[in-house]
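Hi there. Long-time user, first ticket. I'm pasting a complex I've been working with (about 266 residues overall). I'd like to know whether the download I got is complete or cut off, because the file seemed smaller than I expected. Thanks.
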Amino acid sequence: MDRIPILKVGDCLLVTIQVDMHDELAMSLQEDLTSQIAKYASRGVLIDISSLEIVDSFIGRMLANIAAMSRVLDAQTVLTGMQPAVAITLVELGMALPGIKTALNVERGMELLKAYLNQDVEPEETEIDGAQE
Amino acid sequence: MALKSETMPIATSADVVKVRQLVRQWATELKFSLVDQTKLVTAASELARNTLEHGGGGTVFASVVEEGARRGVKLTFDDKGPGIANLELALRDGYTTGGGMGLGLSGSKRLVNDFEIKSEPGRGTTVTIIRWK
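Hi, the file is complete. Here it is re-exported in full:
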């Protein structure tokens, strides 16, 4: 069975979906991506869907799942390049993909990820006032 | 009056992809706008997947129909699966039995002009849609 290639770019993973995906292919992408995030300790995932001519509820759910799973694995997902006709259809279908960051194209998506990775996120300090010295 | 027609099996997820491709081709031939093409192909994808997942497979009868001056693509999805006991509930946004988002039926209804569903528990389900140019 063919698979969708995943490219490692620094601490990000890059996926370009260029085929009309059948369901098993979408499922295998979900598995491949999560295992690669864990393997490379990736902090960001960029998925470009500019060649996708439709996104139905199955593919939409798969994309939402990838974003959620990545978040749990401490990686941020950005979806780029959705065609306007696809966006119109997806919203009418009832799927606005809440919780997924999007960018108009790969370039802006990479900027968004870089901004996310470069921000100084200070780990929340646990207050231990009065703890023993 | 049907100008042309074709019957396709829906037995695997690769068949769902083939249904999408046929519908896309016909919608292009009828010079549907890109948004209309995308809506019709997305609806076809949702319903073909329903036939596969819930109906245990079946067929789609696709035709190009003419009514007066207008032309459209008509698709009839037919399965001999368990059927739907409560159609009103099944057509409601967010109602699901398959672990999905419950947008398949209600969402695809919004994406087409004509939508008709017939189902008999134990006998199967038939969904007919038309998108006019």
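A couple of notes from our side: Helices of chain A lie at 23-40, 57-72, 84-93, 106-118. The mean pLDDT of chain A is 88.
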